[in-house]
Amino acid sequence: MFEVWLPLLGGLVLLLVGGELLVGGAVNVATRLGVSPLVIGLTLVGFGTSMPELVTSVQAGLAGSSGIAYGNIVGSNIANTLLIMGVAALVMPIAVESRALRRDGVTMVAATLVFAGIAAFMPMSRLAGLVFILALCAYIYIAFRQESTGPSDHGAAFDKGAARQEAGSALTPTEVRPARSLGFSLATAIAGLALVIIGGTFLVSGAVALARGFGISETVIGLTIVAVGTSMPEMVTSVVAGLKKQGDVAFGNIVGSNIYNILGIGGFTALIAPGAVPREIATFDNLVMIAVAFLLLAFAFTSRRVSRWEGGVLLALYAGYVFLIWP
């Protein structure tokens, strides 16, 4: 029993620690090179909390475990929306900026619908992956242009980076210690990348072993254990933002993570390891992902906030979803 769980848990720890080192080192390097904090937040820090999902899905795809690869992406979005938003709203009601809600909420739903549509009718090809990545680059570019005009235009891409910077001061560009040389920061980033890659390998092999040992499909493991484990950075950053009464940042962090998951992680997974999304995900879990995305927007639109009772509803729905798919 212990031998089955050890690679899985060890992989998760290496992913989270490695991701922290990678982003911290990369941010310090970028700051030393004169990159603006806005660009750092939108790119390096924004991608930082998605690094565990990225490495896990790509390595699972390369290993032929499409259930884990795409289960991780879809399961992470479902967990972000129901589990993490639910917990964050229970800690503190989540206020939502109407402008960000219209712009980023629509982007999240559109990306979700396109991903589900492609998965339902054809394999995820390299062309589809390239289109997703280009769409993410365009989204980040537009976000950068809008963020540059003033603080009132903050959107999900900015909030995703801001939430991570709030949760970990080591990632805040203005707090880079002068004693940390460019070489040290670069070495830290490389060491973090190595840990992330090793952690992803352990996590995928552990998930496959767990599925085989307990007779559970790899898809279910990917949708639940792997997805929740790799989404822990989003959990921490959203709860911290809620405790600091920055509800708009918590909401933007989750919406931004969902966009990054589909366009970035889904794009790179399809580009590097093209293949079909498992039928059970395409015919059921993708529909759940679409439904909960619309539900989140409905909650946010009604009173420009996600209240505690709505957070409770989201948590209850997640518990019901896991109960439904778990054998």
UniProtKB/TrEMBL annotation:
Gene3D superfamilies in the cross-refs: NCX, central ion-binding region, NCX, peripheral helical region
Residue intervals of the Sodium/calcium exchanger membrane region domain: 5-144, 185-325
Coiled-coil parts of chain: none
Location relative to the cell: Membrane
Transmembrane segments: 29-47, 78-96, 105-121, 127-144, 186-208, 220-243, 255-277, 283-302, 309-326
Gene Ontology cellular component terms for the protein in this record: plasma membrane
UniProt keyword terms in alphabetical order: Membrane, Transmembrane, Transmembrane helix
Membrane in keyword set: yes
GO MF annotations in UniProt: calcium channel activity; calcium, potassium:sodium antiporter activity
Topological category with respect to the lipid bilayer: Multi-pass membrane protein
Keyword DNA damage attributed: no
GO biological process: intracellular calcium ion homeostasis
Name the record gives this protein: Sodium:calcium antiporter
Organism name: Georhizobium profundi
